[in-house]
Structures
1.
Amino acid sequence: MFCFDTLSTVFIFLILLGAIPNLFYSMGYLPHVERKTHYLVHYFGFVFSMIGVVISANALVFLFFWEIMSLSSWQLILTQAEDKSTIKAANFYFFMTHFGFIFLLMFFLIVTNGNLELGFKEMKSITSMFEYPTLLFFFLSLGFLSKAGVVPLHVWLPYAHPAAPSPVSALMSGVMLKVAIYGLFRFLFDVLYPWPLEWGMLILTLGSISSLVGVLYALSEHDIKALLANHSIENIGIILIGFGMGMIFDTLGLKTLSSFAFIAALFHSFNHMSFKSLLFMGAGSVLHQTGTKNIEKYGGLIKSMPVTALTFLLASISISALPPSNGFLSEWMIFQSMLSSSHIGDISLKLTIPFAVFSLAMTSGLAIACFVKAYGITFLGLHRSTNAKHAHEVNLLMKMGMILMSLVVISLMLFTPFYIGWFDKVMVSFSRGSIYQEIFPSIWNMHSLGTVGGVVSPLILLFALMGITLLLMFAYKVSNKKIRYHNTWSCGYKTSAKTQYSATGFAGPIRRFFSWLYRPEVHFEKQIMAGHESKFDASHYEVHVKPLFEQFLYKNLTKLANTISYWIYRLAHFEKTRYSAMIFNLLLVVLFSYRVFINAFSWATFLLEFIVMMISVKILIVGDKK
Amino acid sequence: MIWYVLTLLILILIAPLLSSFIKVVKMILLFKKPISIFQGYWDFSKLMQKETLISHEASSLTTYAPFLVLSPLLVVMLFLPPAIQGSFYVNFVDAFTITGLISLSTFFLMLLGLDSGSSFGGMGSSREAFISALVEPAMILTIFSVSMMADNLSIAQAGLNLAHHFPKEHMASFLFAGISFFILLLAENGRIPIDNPETHLELTMVHEAMILDISGVYLAIIESASSIKLVIFSSLFVSLFLPFGLEYSPLIALCIFVTKLFLVAIFVALLEVNMAKLRLFKVPNLLGVSIVFAFLSLITFYVLGV
């Protein structure tokens, strides 16, 4: 019923690392929650069900905990259901998570032959008999990737995460998404093992697209928590790039490179858990103090909230993949595994990998821009609203949560060899050779495994950077320069909150360059004074970025479904002759396809049936031209 | 080891010289009376003597960020390819680390721009963020391709390998990568088609706008950071794309290396005189060219085979 193999243990550890600092933060946050019992019951239910998912050993238990996890997080979103948008977000989340659940259920029903109490290990023999493994792969990916938030199934994230209370968003984004990644690891390795090349390519493509789409939408976001939610889409994309590379290498027989890529994906899962939780906690503290999620209303918070500002800075450096942070190390590993694609023999495949390299590099460049925006607008500059002016540091428990989480971030940076060694054991448990010795010949240097492989040395880099910075600062201190605080020149205007750059303005050039994706709607409102348009006064500039996928894919799908159902409704209720004609046509199609399947058809009958069908379609369904 | 330290010192010392050298060449070409070639040092010493003026609006970040802008670049200096055959070099650092460290420096520079709350700083940061986001993919693809040709990802080792065994059969991809890298050199250092280092005009500033509120020692630090960045990029260009003359005796090899740096500077100055600054929204086109060349370089390399 339960199993504690290496993969499960690794993910239990991930959940605990995410949950324990979160618990402190949550306790600090609790006085502001109205329905305390409701919150606590579901909070603990959520954490335990996540652990339950990763230790379950048969399908029934897995699905049970999976469902508890979904439902408790759904209830947690509804903890502070004051406005309509929260309820709408919760409904959306409920729908999306059960959309995935259906596919998981179908997957399990097929691979267990209907006996859901079958263990994961026994599923493999049933799967190998099944004729269409790609169907199983699609069920699996729809099930898990809708939970992980991969494009185009990512639309619930930017709604659900901001609506939840901050500790819950940290848990959902940091930990719950990783449980979906756990599912991919578990079932792709244990159940569907020999993968065709196309699966790896699909995962790689999805990952590349998600990473770009996530970061681009994050850039245009003003809601700080939605911004972070979009970054989760990006980071899940990065994890999937590593995962997809691993699958591709595995199919091509390059086992060590494949293990390296999988280890990179696991390491990035850990790193994303750490810095994203920390970012959500920081955002939660800011939100808690200022009472608004709008990033344009913050500013200058570094002066009143130093602990939050410092931890947020650490997490920002890490998520932007800047050395020597842990985010850099895992992204470095993923880059290296993509560069090892020069070992692939197939030239057409070799030529496609650089496009994934391009998208990952672009993503990391844009992520830097996005976090300069998030950090700079939130914490630096002048207060943009009175709320920001009256903000002060959060309570001790919340601070403790943030500090503990930043310790997790730092530990991932300092003890990289330890973590990598552990992830290597996971790969060994999937009956592969250990590659720890090749990655870390000594604890100072981390090697990649390609023949032209690179080396990075996290600790040396950290010490060199810190050493030189401290030396410079020491030299400055010793020189004992006079410091004067005064006004600096500000273009002839008085520096005020209104003249400084806004988040909208900061992302302006990028928004303009990617306007084909964003399709921004710009609203200008100018004050009319004495019948004339004034030039600047109270002019109001706002940009709304349409979420493209939601707008086009989802809305149009709904529209299509509505049109079809209305048409059928009309036929069935008002136009009986046409309805019967449709049934007649359907019958013909069924007969025809039946004969195609048993290979007993001739072109003459096909032609005859086709003509009969066309006539009835023309006369009975389309009808006369009005 | 002694030559390694000596090269390092010389490179750091000539950094302000190289920047003012470009300025001098430009002024000569424009028939102006040139400034002294040592102007960079004079500016530096003058700034070092001044008091530090910090804006009322600025936070504690302003007091730390300038050091964090300079120190990653100094760390990068340690990892550059050797100028002399047989001298010590750090052989375990690859190109991602170097681009990462440069991004780290830019990250703090952009935060510094936003710190004082002036609209100029924000404008500069916003533009810099835009440009450096587009530089990143081109940079990584170019380096990917060069390291394939040099058969090593470690940047110092790649420089040596290219000097030992120049891949003549991959001349086409080498050339493409060279063009791409030169565009990146211009973009990262804020040279003319992308940013004009000389004007203080609202419409054109990128780098200068970010540091408008910085003064005194902090300004000296940031200015030396930008001249060191120029040295880093030009010496990377020199050791990866003009890899010859390493095998002579150390003193001559070092002279050749420095001469090549000044040649790159002359080339930059020539380009600056002959080109107009691009509008900000035309910059992506130039960087797009660089990305396309990087792709082309990689593709020709793969198609021609190892």
2.
Amino acid sequence: MRHIPDGVLRRLDDEPLAVPDRVAEHVADCARCSARRSEIACDAEQAVRLLSAPRLVPDTDIAWVRLRRELERRSGRRAPGQERSTPVTGRPPRFPRVSLRAGLVIAAIGVLVVGTAAAASLTTIFAPTHVAPVSVSQGDLRAIASFMGLGDSNALGGFSTPNGSSTFRFGTIKWSSGSAEPASSAAAAGAQAGFSVSLPTHLPGGVGPVQQFMVQPRVSATVTFKSTARRVAGSSVTVDAGPGVLAEYAGASGTDVPTLAVATMPRPTARSTGADLTEIEAFLLAQPGIPPQLAEEIRLVGDLRTTLPVPVPPGASVHSVQVAGWPGVLLADSSNAAAAVVWEDGRGMVHAVAGILDPQDVLNVADQLR
Amino acid sequence: MGLQARHNDPAERLDSDPGIAAFESFFRSQYRTVVRLAHNVVGDSQGAQDVAQDVFLAAYRRFPGDYEQAAGWVRVAAVHTALNRLRGERRRDKRQLLVPPGGYPLGPEETVIEREAGAEVRRVLRRLPRRSAAVLVMRHGGMSYLEIADALGVKVGQVGTLLRRAESALRKEMDRETHS
């Protein structure tokens, strides 16, 4: 019998039943074919090692929702009198549309908790120089909002009015936040905010042009502890955050859902008078309104005077990263379909880049903001 | 003249498609296989899911209401679409050298060695002849010799030969990659 061709020897390993018995018998008796079979099996084994299926388990439910939405969109476009459909590489529209003001308010609330805890006896400046993750659930946000007298129905909405005051269990909170205003360009937004706005020059695939610039005036909130809060009575903490500039990018397909957002603001600060650091921290974090797990997370942040906590929603993965040489926190959802990175640049500016993008793409954008 | 029902809402219009339930069932049965095939090529989960979305959108148009033949088609389309994307990325990488210091963080259970190996494999897949790259991804993504023969339009007896050549080329290119 003639020697066995390489292709048949290869199939002998994968689908032996599809190869005639005489082939296997020949290989067993033929040193040359046997040696070639070993060599072929060795290459095949290496290919298996390099190319075998990964551990990826995609979420079929989310994918179906995403696909169906795209089919609906295309179905809508095919309606009589409307434009023809165009190929689109859609990404899941799961980017949370939190307004800049709400974002700053969330930051202010976070800073308030931490900044209050960081208060020293006379005047203390909370001026974070770096960021650190703090796990925060929806329940935690509601608890903080409720604790601060902001109402517990929608913590992400922040303060219900641009200016106002509220009484909470241990004192009063007074705030002024102004309303976010659109700006015509990055330069105009920067002029309004008082700092230059840096934007990426290279955008990832799927990201379209800037959809809008928004400028949020400074958000300021002062908490005054009343006399019933014995250990901290008379203390007051004022937190200032902003002004901030938000640039929202449309999708390349023209969808209204922003695929990328770039936010810039000076680092928030807190000034405080009254009780000392240890007393206020112990008092505030031990209150029933503050979830114990969140209090523990905040304690783990370390030196609260210099650290800006970045809220991490449940299910998100957290990584420490370097952005243009500065330490930052990268958050990604479980499927890596959306990601956000927050960092402080060492010149007192806090930056955030978020998008319905791969974490690598988000970091690539962030790395350009120098 | 009778009045014809009109669906102005896109969701209603889609619901009125008698094939949408069958398509959903087909999608659910094939989605993970398609994503894994694409992931073997592009190496990132979001990219693989984007490829899968494009493939199923095309399948919906191509096989209206009849998905018997579509299972093999979506697998082959996933491999080719993913290879197109991989080659497109090479062009993009040349334009934008934007990888931050240290690269992006490792995914769950991913090790540095696995990541480097994955990057090497993708570089090699880009360099291999397209048919060799396709046959490698198809076979090691779980497709049978018969399915590969159908996909490539060759006789089933030729698949072993194509696969053997592709695996040999993969080994040589990986050796080159290691020693370069």
3.
Amino acid sequence: MKIIVAIKQVPDRDSQIRIDPSGKWIDESDLQYAMNESDAHALEEGLLLKEKHGGEVVVVSAGPESVGTTIREALAKGADRAIHVVADELGTLDALGVARLLAAALKDENPDLILAGLQSEDLGLGQTGVILAELLGLPHASLILQVEKTDTGFSVKRELEEGWFQTIELPTPAVLTIQSGGNKLRYATLMGIKRAKTKEVRRLAAAEIAVDSTPVAVLQQVALPRKQKSTQLLAGTAKEAAAALVEKLRFEVRVL
Amino acid sequence: MSGVLVVIEQRAGRIARINWEALAAGLRLASPSAVAAVGVGADTQELASEIATKAPSRVVAVEHPLLAPYTADGYSIALEQLIRAELPEFVVFPHTYQVRDYAPALAARFGQMLISDVTGIADGPLFTRQLMQGRLNGTYRHSGNGPCFVSVQAGAFHAGLPAFEPAAIARFTPVLEAAQIRTRPGEPFRAAAQAVDLGSAQLIVGVGRGIKGEENLPLVQELATALGAELAASRPICDNGWLPMERQVGSSGQTVAPKLYIAAGISGAIQHLVGIKGSQCIVAINKDPDAPIFEVADYGIVGDLLEVVPALTAAVKAAKQ
């Protein structure tokens, strides 16, 4: 089975986020980066399927040079090769533009299955995988926790709202967007990290892929959210703050 | 191109409040006479009548036997035909799991992208949505030719609609063939009976990633016990198997409305916040002063929960003596 996994590099969850002087994006100068969480689960699902049924896992990622570290991480965990769509100004694209780049990069791959994370932790548009399916003319299912191969395609467990689930049958090839938490992420082994250095990373310049990537949704401005409530911050040491909170809970909230 | 289509979703025979909020958002984009509400299904008679009690002018019932159960293919094909016939300027959806499944594909059929999970609409129109897990707001403008697709976040718009005359119902029958529907959906099921009813709990201690490891869970359990509170968790904790799924609060878990919700080490991603916004008082304990949980908290302590929680447990015990 040939499996493509689309991954995105995003600012690490613990990074300090600062708005850049233009007010249109964040200051990227000293950000730490990581693999988007649901993409890591998509990769894990792809690796599990390969271990069970044989085949190949190919990761594809669009973004600047720095994305190389995230691609190496995927290769170290067990992906066989990678396609890096080198796009310096990823922030100026919308999900449609990114999906068009990925679709063009994958056009000669003919995979049996394409996996993508459900949603990115930075822009959170939550659409790239579904749009990719539409552009490639493939059936899809989203919010998937588990994937089983069947004789004709796939049987997948889809998350619905409020604790409900559903099983969906799809033919192959298909596109699935993976929800976090359906599998346990593995760590790269030392051997894996070593091997990753020799694995193929095909580089494609976004500028040379002839797709229209003019955004239809233009990000005009970013700002810190306005508070919905005025929070009373309780300062001091842990002990002082705890004592102050207990006072509030007793005499203002009246729950103690 | 003019007017607004608002696509209303029925789930388990019910129209949830978020749909009326989407309709309210639609009314921000055009005058009431230009806003039509759309119901989709195999038999839309009841659905359309219910929508007609609230819709401002017109209801379009998109009906075809192949539109139940829901499939992304069926909905995308049917709504594409409706949109080509109606040529609206805006198409508005509630931001539900179902919409997330098909609306991006539908928009792509028009060379468009869904401006998803919108929390505000200003003149322009400019659409506000959250970025970086709620740590930033972004303002988006639609550019290009073709309808603008927008989905709205639960609770972002006020569902109280003005009273309109009962709306006229028109039927739209799409051309749809069984072979066009490539996926086979099964019946919804629940993993296990919900043994823990957090929905009626008065006091809840919720724990998130800040707990760092499973070995630290007794710290929050002790606080819950001292308060006489139920223990709950954000998604990552349950994903890791540290607490059972039935203790998960948020869009994929339970919705709670306690007198007191203590969020310990929970950053406050929207998926969690939608589950706790009915709380009367929210206390946030988090080491990151910029964590979005502080935007909704009544009281906040900036600090490491591994230090603050034991101190709080001791203070609660002392107060109760």
4.
Amino acid sequence: MSVAVGRGVPVGNRVGHVHAAAAVAGTVVLLALGAFLTGRSVAPPPQPADSITTIGGIPVAVDHSPAGALAAADNYVAVAYATVERNPRRDEQLIDSVYAPAIRSSALGGAATVRNQNAGSMALWAHGGQNLSLIGARRLDYYRGDQAQVTTWNVDIFWGPGRPPKQAWVLTQTSLQWARGRWLVTTTATLPTPGPVPALTPQATAADDRESAFNRDLAGLSAPIYGAAG
Amino acid sequence: MRVASVLVGALLVVAAGALMLGYQTAPRVARPNPIRLEDGVPVGVVDTPIGAIAAAENYLVSEDDALLSRTEIRRVVDTVWAPAERDVELAQPFPAAGLAGKPATFPGLQLAAAVAGAKLDSYTPQSAQVVVWHEITLWSPSVEPTQRWSLDTMMLVWDEGRWLVASRTAAPDSQTPVPAWTSGTPRDSTSEAFDTRLGGMSAPYYRGVTP
């Protein structure tokens, strides 16, 4: 007695169909995988990540490299000089964000002292004074993995009612430590000798002594954020 | 025959879909660096308003920094200027010639350039216009450190994954702010002070403006 299998399809044929289906499925999988990998390979290579992120408007250096340390010092120094007198709230934000916890209290105290000792400048800011801080150049003094030191040549340019626009150049030395995924300031000091000062400005005219010219021509300009080339 | 055609068609659809999926899911960085170095020249490679500002800032300072060498300036211009405008830019006079009637070059001449501020005048994904206020300081053993300030309007075009300079226009001196009063003493304004205190320093890279 024989038992019918399936619907009258010979066993040999059914096995053949299964093999064929498996072959097709395998081909589809291989083809899809190959196409997927080809798609990956022809896509543009990922761009390097940014070395700077902003937290509450404060540029924070997040690249653990020599270039990242330089970008950290560039930004931290520029923001510190721009805000210590004119925008104490933002200076506090900077200290909270990128100064090592051990020096935050002394940094806040130092900033308050600067403001208390510069009544003339504080009056300028109170009456609508403007400023822009910029980095002229900088040097990586050393880089030891989690620690770095940078010397910066920087200037604060300020003007306002009754004060002709002026440049104040200094040299600033900043020590940094890598911690919690960012560069933190461990010490910062304005070097005792002033920065080299480019005092000749032959293109200047009498109009450049007036704040109105600066307010008009520089309306809407913001200080740069500094980075590192990828 | 018909079954085979359908099968081949289905395979092509699967392959095309997988290809697209692979392309779309290729690793990307959430916050790409707006600047990439090419042959030592920073190139703006992010098509956003901030990316355009970063490009303009770096292009101006790179060109300023290269002014002392004909080879260097050509390298910068060839990298960041639109091809049709390169010869025009290279024909510009050396800016130092404008310094108090001095000749264009001096033995031992050194230079430092920096951006003081910038703003975006206009932006579309194809083009942008950026205003940059920047300065150059020149000095040599025989030339006292001297500044030149510029207020430049730069037009950029987005081309094949990068910003290229299409034009650059400098405001006349009468409309360029120059902070003529400076700090320090005469000793700080000597070429020796510059050589001694700025040894080994380099210009920073820029990535936009403070929000």
